[in-house]
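Protein chain data
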Amino acid sequence: MYERPFHVDDFFCFNNVNFDPLTETYHPAFYMPYLTRWGDICEIEESFGGDICGYMIAKAEGPGADRHGHVTAVSVAPEYRRLRIAKKLMENLENRTTNIYGGKFVDLFVRNSNSVARQFYHLLGYYDFHIVDDYYGDENGLDMRKEFSSGSKKKGKKKKTKHVSPEWYEQWAKNWK
């Protein structure tokens, strides 16, 4: 397996990865700004036979101390799980967040009920930052975060998790502008 940049035509070839019911899937138009603006942190893990094994769609956002990487989607095809592909994709994002974008942390959202993903992220050093009420419409989302110290990676620190609304995040993002 090898990694490569995510290309536009990959949207038509990664259904084997996206059939997982816990993978949030959006229209390709949603992802296009990611590929054009943050193409260096959106990547595919591909088999030597040409199968898409997994992918990462991410972005860098926020000013100053709020500069960070954000995981929009990371998923691995069922037949390629337990091969450390997701870990490799996450580590690549963390390195690029700090070394290219000067980010102070990486965050992501996950369904509260997705215990496998939550455990995986905890093993990577992410902690539960906020519970976002009704983030997925039918379910709360968990905002997980891994902070870095002086541009170098360190294990995420545990803080008290609080409930926030989706509107709270909208206001937080507006304050960047």
Remarks:
- The chain is about 25% helix and 30% strand.
- The two ends are 40 Å apart (CA to CA).
- The chain has one domain: 2-174.
